Amino acid sequence: MATKIFVNLPVKDLNKSIEFFRKLGYSFNPQFTDEKATCMIISEDIYVMLLVEPFFKSFTKKEIPDTAQNAQVILALSAESREGVDDLVNKAISAGATTPNDKQDQGFMYGWGYQDLDGHLWEVMYMDPAAIQQN
């Protein structure tokens, strides 16, 4: 079995988070969804567990950072093209996200990001396959 990743993120309002991420095109596994959590499917190997804050706290003794003031992690996802980067971030903006940074164009690599409803930072990037093969 291939290694899979399950990222766990605290959310304030699970239903609003589900609605937000559905607008970005993500689906959810109903088998792992209830009033406390849901399993968002990014790809066949990448999943994000959205957990309401009290449930998230049951897994750690650490405090949940205030995302208005602190960044704990930046989640980076690849896109198939530059247009794919812009498309996903524009969908996020339309669904209520903000953009904490400008687009970054380094020629061979292009990226842009958004901050979701709970303040989590997401970066979407495209890298020219020809540039990867040269290294």
UniProtKB/TrEMBL annotation:
Domain VOC: 3-127
Domain of life: Bacteria
Pfam family of the protein (one): Ble-like_N
Matching Gene3D superfamilies: 2,3-Dihydroxybiphenyl 1,2-Dioxygenase, domain 1 (3.10.180.10)
SUPFAM superfamilies the UniProt entry points to: Glyoxalase/Bleomycin resistance protein/Dihydroxybiphenyl dioxygenase
InterPro entries in the record: Glyas_Bleomycin-R_OHBP_Dase, Glyoxy/Ble-like_N, VOC_core
UniProt-recorded name of the protein: VOC family protein
